[in-house]
């Protein structure tokens, strides 16, 4: 009985038969892998079932019904990729057929890179978005490298490669088992921060699990390291919740995805962005096999390159305590009063701005209170002007920043700027000002044009960037 319920075989081993030496090596790898997995799975009631396409199945060179049933009823397929494999019509047909009939084929294919095959020569079923799957290296990076252990050489490297693949297969096969009843989880302590270990590609799952154990051992943190969901929406929802509930992200960053069909980077970049957007501290751990200089050109490679200085070793408990303490100090809530020139024609924009300020508060832990006052030149009545000046004078000690609105009526901004400059030159306004662009079209204003920072109200990054500016304004006010 196979380990995974509902299938005839736990995995199907596919390799080219064109060379006796390579065939013997492939079967030896299968024996090593089978033995390692049986130890890891540790199930006495179920025995690991492996289907191998022996020579007598080849028949007339087309896939036989027996072979089709074997592949279709396997939980996963392991392909030993060699130059022989890419030149074998049989293997090409086999891989294409599996990809066409197997549900979630991209998740079920594990590639053993026994030779360094050029990306252009990889069979189409072994590519994701045109890029070769990550796979598992069973040879050196050298173009002329032979498989580890083919002639008894590099046996340690062969055993190490088998161990890495065994661990990944173990997690995959165990994930295909029906969920077993578990004791109720210990609730997170209010006295301990929660740290989320980001989802990563399957080749790094063992490292992620080991890191979770190490960080949990001391009891300083509640470590959240859930199993990787199969559904992309569930992955997204789980990380969004984590970014809201957890104090920090620890992300192991490796090469681009192997069998993650949901995104080319294994959702690594997306997770980091979610935590960055909520001002949660991130610890980016460099995977052992990560070489930024050798990553294929891609948005993911650019993303990591931009954060190269932050990539470091796996964190210790002391490391995490340090970044959490620093983040807590930096993110201490700040009360900030923001003055805005108010007009009747600005009413709808002011309402949108108030809603945005709630997001600003979340992004920067800033309690931004809007203080609307009409401009002095809104009236010619001396008493009203005197009353307005008195209002401003009384509120001046509370104001950290001023907002000038740019609406469809661009002339009003000029009037507001004139008043701000008059107040600044007279000493009545001792706070910095910024322009919030609420227009829906027309030329885009910049700081170079206006002499003040410009923030577009509908910019997705408005909350984060405006929070940073308010924090700077509050710090300058305290310093002065």
Topology:
Blueprint: E1 9-14, H1 20-41, E2 50-52, H2 65-72, E3 74-81, H3 83-86, H4 89-101, H5 105-108, E4 109-113, E5 127-128, E6 131-132, E7 136-137, H6 155-176, E8 194-197, H7 205-217, E9 222-224, H8 232-245, E10 248-253, H9 268-277, E11 282-286, H10 299-306, E12 311-312, H11 317-330, E13 334-341, H12 347-364, E14 366-373, H13 382-395, E15 399-406, H14 410-426, E16 433-437, H15 447-450, E17 454-456, H16 462-479
Parallel strand pairs: 1-2, 1-3, 3-4, 4-7, 8-9, 8-10, 10-11, 11-12, 13-14, 13-15, 15-16, 16-17
Antiparallel strand pairs: 5-6
General description of the model:
The chain is α/β, with parallel strands linked by helices. It has 3 domains: 9-176, Rossmann fold (3-Layer(aba) Sandwich), CATH 3.40.50; 194-329, Toll/interleukin-1 receptor homology (TIR) domain (Rossmann fold, 3-Layer(aba) Sandwich); 332-479, Rossmann fold, CATH 3.40.50.2300. It is built from 16 helices and 17 strands. The protein has helices at 20-41, 65-72, 83-86, 89-101, 105-108, 155-176, 205-217, 232-245, 268-277, 299-306, 317-330, 347-364, 382-395, 410-426, 447-450, 462-479, and strands spanning 9-14, 50-52, 74-81, 109-113, 127-128, 131-132, 136-137, 194-197, 222-224, 248-253, 282-286, 311-312, 334-341, 366-373, 399-406, 433-437, 454-456. The strands form 4 sheets. The protein has a 5-stranded parallel sheet with strand order 2-1-3-4-7, with helices on both faces. It has a 5-stranded parallel sheet with strand order 9-8-10-11-12, with helices on both faces. Strand 11 (282-286), helix 10 and strand 12 form a beta-alpha-beta unit. Helix 1 (20-41) packs across helix 6 and helix 12 (347-364) crosses helix 16 (462-479). The longest helix is centred in the N-terminal third of the chain and has 22 residues, at 20-41. It starts with 8 loop residues before the first strand and ends with a helix. The model is unreliable at 55-61, 179-188 and 258-262 (pLDDT under 50).
